[in-house]
Amino acid sequence: MRWLGVVPFFLFVSLFLLFPTLYIVVGAFRTPEGSFTLANIASLNTPGIINAYLLSIRVSFFSAILGCLIGFGMAAAITFGGLPRVLRTPLMTFSGVASNFAGVPLAFAFIATLGPVGLVTVWLRTEFGINLRSWGFNLLSTQGLIATYLFFQIPLMILIITPALEGLKREWKEAASILGANAFQYWTMVALPILFPSLLGTLALLFANAFGAVATAIALTGSTLNLAPILLFAQIRGDVLGNPHLGYALAFGMIVITGIANAIYIILRTRSERWIK
Amino acid sequence: MTRFIAWTVFLFGCLFFVLPLLGLTEFSLSMRREGYTFDAYRVVLADPQFRATFLYSVMAAVMTIIMGVLIVVPTAYWVRLKMPWLRPVVEFITLLPLVIPAIVIVFGYIRLYNTSSVLPLMGSTAGTTVLLICGFTVLALPYMYRAVDTGMRTIDIKTLTEAAQSLGAGWFTILFRIILPNVLVAVLSGSFLTFAIVIGEFVFPALLNLPAFGPYMQIVGANKAYEPMALAVIAFTITWACMGLIQLVTRFQKHTQVKR
What we know:
The complex is a heterodimer. Chain A is an all-alpha fold.
């Protein structure tokens, strides 16, 4: 009777997580009459849908790369850049808040700042005569979306990588310098190889994080950008693809992409935990 | 030299975080040409739609927290006590909502629980609200489970259970009068995080056609200039307050813990 204790949990996740997802996955491989088919997956190969996936992948990838680099820089600055230790707690707390500050309000914050009449846009124009638009920056575009996503990507990177940086033992650095290594050699031959699984894993996680984001993109650009989640949103609302089973295939493709990214993250995290305990 | 670079990187990063919040606040106060006023907030707070959607979302968030606690605490307890071999499975399932995009989950709901299905939850507004709360609970599952499971690691479940049993306590008493108070700080942390995530959630209520705060913000944002900024400031303040409360309860726990 021991298993009775976990019945509520499994019942709940089956009804509201596993079955709904399975329904979509199975639907992607079924004809409207109910027999097995690969035609839905094959029909994804139209320019509109491929472009939506590619744009989503591009936005997620660049926001993940930039988020990783900037987040790493900030985490490194507070762990061994010689900054006062009092800055550490506020930064970590703020990162906790900001990494959860996605969605509609985030889009508004960027419109108020970098939008056509935003604080920074107007300030640059009146004080320095710099017109962001003529420099090629437009908030309601791919670059604008990437900049907006960075607001939650950087903090997430800081939250994940700071413990890893703190796990680098001082003895390793001392051992390296006794053996005659300079700072550059220590970084390229000791620290970065140890950190590499963490860095790559976090990159994959940030990628998945951006790939599934819908609310920010819709609130920022309406439906002008052809991103995979926005296309799926429109498909669920009004069957814009004209074939419900193509919608399942589109959703299935999204699960596959975020699934691969998360699998990379999990595998690399277990690898990195061997060194950093 | 290192310190100079570190400061530059740090300050540059901080600028990136501070400017959008500054821009947002400034914009929300600039509704009148004469100078800064709270007019945008006044308009928003007077809007009956705002009150209705905000209350709806608060209600949904509270129900989500209750449901999450009722599902997660007994499960985490039971798995730790009696079925440790099941832990990896449960842990994996609770992490799935981070892997499967929310929009895909809600897509599944719409197909599985529509009016012509076996369980037509979407036939009524009340039923759809139940569906929304279940969906929010799924979204909160990774955070709730991790918080509670970590909380349970720090207490000796086995001894507590045996002590309670030898004094004649039943399972209900053990769970809600022994275990829950002991992991209360973890439960509260998970609850505040859940609240912060759920209050402005957009995708679930938008696709289920429910009058929640997230879709309301998006609609106002598409039609007005200053009001959405005031809404965003309110939403950010709520997130901030939730995180502050988490810090507060965690600090509270440190004082109550026995020094070893």
